[in-house]
Amino acid sequence: DGIETASGDGRSLYSGTVPLETTRSGTSYQLKDATRGGTYTGDAQNKTDLCILGICLSRAPATLYSDADNRWGSGANADRASAAVDAQYGTDQTWDYYKQVHNRNGIAGDGKGSYNRVHYGNKYNNAFWDDSCFCMTYGDGDGTTFGPLVALDVAGHEMTHGVTSKTAALTYSGESGGLNEATSDIFGTLVEFHADNASDPGDWRIGEKLVKPGFGKAALRFMDRPSKDGSSPDCWSSSVGNLDVHYSSGIANHFAYLLAEGTGTKVFGGVEHTGTTCDGTTLAGIGKEKLGKIWYRALTVYMTSSTKYAGARTATLSAAKDLYGAGSAEYAAVTATWSAVSVN
Ligand code: ASN
Ligand code: ZN
Ligand code: CA
Prior knowledge:
This protein is an alpha+beta fold. The protein is built from 8 helices and 17 strands. Strands 4, 5, 8, 11, 12 and 13 form a 6-stranded mixed beta sheet that branches. A 5-stranded mixed beta sheet has the order 9-3-2-1-10, covered by helices on one side.
């Protein structure tokens, strides 16, 4: 008979066994979640898109996953389905973070879901958001530098590119591109904390679950001290707009860490993080919930496509004023923290 939502579970690569809301269709189940706008995950079947200047001549498929017993990532084709479990769980958790914390109903705020493609290409060492399909795509990694790029913080990062695209629409180059990237790292991290998953506890590193020894670093990016990646600046200077957007994001990532956690050493996910300011000041930190509130309001109300670091400072100050008042400790903390990363 008909189609209905069912509760299953999946064995993920990085997040343990996770609950999944799926769709029963006749005698089998589909990896499609009607409780989250119909968000689904499909197999790209190791194919790639052929796109030139944003026009796609062909696209890898997104062949919807199905399963006989609604216990995903086990039994036949377990290996192929496990990456799909991570991707679907990642978009579930990101959906829930935006809904529960910011009362945002999906990427565009209209309740409509999106989709994930996993097993994109061959040993593909990246994941990406694409505005033209309104979808997220994940490679399997080459197995020596990266494993499958489906970790929770990366899923939150990619889905947040969709949110940014539908709100501030920060242009993906120069300083605005760095702010676009940082917005994805900030909310990807806040999603990871919000999920509260014992197998992938929250930290202020990006991609810590998927890097392999061959990469030589413990994560892709480090928000407590972005320069740990060997390329990102910790402090603003007039030349940061010339950097790759995944490096010019460092200043805003550093701001986010310091605003939430302050200076000194703390342990997240079993790993020490140390906050240090560019101006030698000490900061107490106002917590990650307030960071999320301030950055989300700045992104959705005040930032525009051309916002640079100076504009991010005024946008977050306007947000802090709206939320907590111009005379508040939070407003003062935003001021002091931008100064601490040399944005004055
Ligand atoms: N993984 C990268 C990102 O989401 C892909 C890219 O370079 N846009 O930023
Ligand atoms: Zn990104
Ligand atoms: Ca992380």
